[in-house]
Structures are given as C-alpha cells and as structure tokens.
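Below is how a single chain appears once it has passed through the pipeline. First comes the sequence as given, then the structure the pipeline wrote out for it. We keep one example in the README because the format questions we get most often are answered faster by looking than by reading.
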Amino acid sequence: MKAINSPNLPSPLGHYVHAMKAGNMIFLSGQLGVGPDDNPDREVEDQVIKSLTAHETILRDIGLDRKSIAKTTIYISDIDLWPRVNACYADFFGDHKPARCVVPCPDLHYGSKIEIEAIAYVESDS
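Resulting structure:
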C-alpha cells in the first residue's frame, strides 16, 4: 500500500492520509464541506463542490481525474438537503455516474452539512 497526501490541500488534521493506494484502488478519505476556518452556514452546494474538488485535486496529483471515481459515500446531516446535494453532484460528474451510498447522520465535524468519501480505480497498477 502507498499513502497519498496532496501538496495542494491542507495537511490532514487527524491520524489519516488524504488517500491510500492499494493495488488498483485508491481509497480517498472523507472530505468535509467546510474546514476549521470556514463558515458552516455556507450553502450546501458550495460544500459539495469543496468536497468533490478536494477529491479531484488528490486524483490529479497522481495523474487521474473525476472519471476514475468508482464509488462515493455521502454523509449528510439533513436529508431534506438531498435534492440540492444530488443536483450539484450530478452537475459535477456529468455523464459519469459512480456507484453511490447516501448516509443520513447527525452532526458532522466543524458543522459541515456533508462529508464525501470516494473510491477510485487505476487502470494499471503502476
């Protein structure tokens, strides 16, 4: 296995890495919609883009892109926000449709409304 930390994102604040490569799979740690210095009242659409863009940054650092994402898990603090999250998510991915799981949950760290984790696939194990 190989640990991956993006030089283009803030360092993880806990005992984890941005992603872990295991064989042909990249397991991307959950990315919140807000950070410790952000306003948790940011619109949920902005939070979705922040999270997904962080994943895309990590993937680009290793020569991949959003179309490498095979599955996502979305943790959402208020299921009533789901239509807005889903619309923003669909705009981000376009024709690419990763497998997905949505998990309603209580409070997320820093008051974030969403957290998204992802699994990406690498065509060759290089």
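Residues 68 and 114 are 21 Å apart (CA to CA).

See the next section for the split statistics.
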